[in-house]
Amino acid sequence: MERDFKVIKEWYSDLGVLYEMIKSLKGRELALIVPKWASEEERKRTNRMNRAHSVQNLTGVFNCIRWFQDETPYNLYYSIASYKSGVPYKDFKDPKKNESWKTQHHNNMTGYDFFLDIDSPSHAFLPMAYDDAFQIKKLFDYEGVPYELRFSGCGFHFIIPAKYWAKMDLDPRRLPNIYTVFKQIASKLSEEFTEFIDTGIYDSRRVCKLPYSLALYEDTTPLVCYPFVDDDDFKNFDFRDMRCTNLKGKLKGRGLHIFNEYGKVDGLIRWCGW
Hints:
Largest sheet: 4 strands, antiparallel
Strand order of the largest sheet: 2-1-3-9
Order of helices and strands: HHEHEHHEEHEEHEEHEEEHHH
Distance between the termini: 45 Å
Number of strands: 11
CATH class: Alpha Beta
CATH topology: DNA primase, PRIM domain
CATH architecture: Alpha-Beta Complex
Helix content: 25-40%
Number of domains: 1
């Protein structure tokens, strides 16, 4: 990775970018995770269970962890689960303060999105991952399935928000639950379309790359986790355009987009053979 922290700091100092990220963080956990390719010392700085429901909260977290002073290569994630009042405020002097909340977190959930991760092994395989995402998008559009679609930095994310699903058990200790059901759907899609789908991500504390954040890699400059806002946006995708230097100042007010917003998940459920 090109460790140009001036570029990274400029990105996360842009109010337009911060406001776009906040739209996905309300009621959810913010996690700052150091990638596996970083040094052992840096990986120890991974920081979960942060609350950031406003730009002030978000920049406050950045300051508390001394992100830019220590030049830590963080990737930003948010929880697939949403919580009634969000995660508790964090005491940075006592990071274990909320351990009991973690064991009972499912009792505070208001929803859990379906998250499909098409995870390319490297940027060299991105054209294949794109083709896989294209085929799954065709299926979802044909069946009228509502979804968000995003570039993840090295693959693609489909999100079907919780509001489109019938109520399912959120307690990970009971079977079956929402996590086992979603894993079955992902496994069926993997069998039909691509081995790039990660079927091992279905648990109650799963996190996903934060839209409009930067994906940091060892072998390329920072790339924007980019939500597609219409069909043409996706059809014209070129990952080289996702470099933060190309998108600087162009994302203010862009928001997120639900394809087939007034659709249902019934078609996907039928397609799975249920």
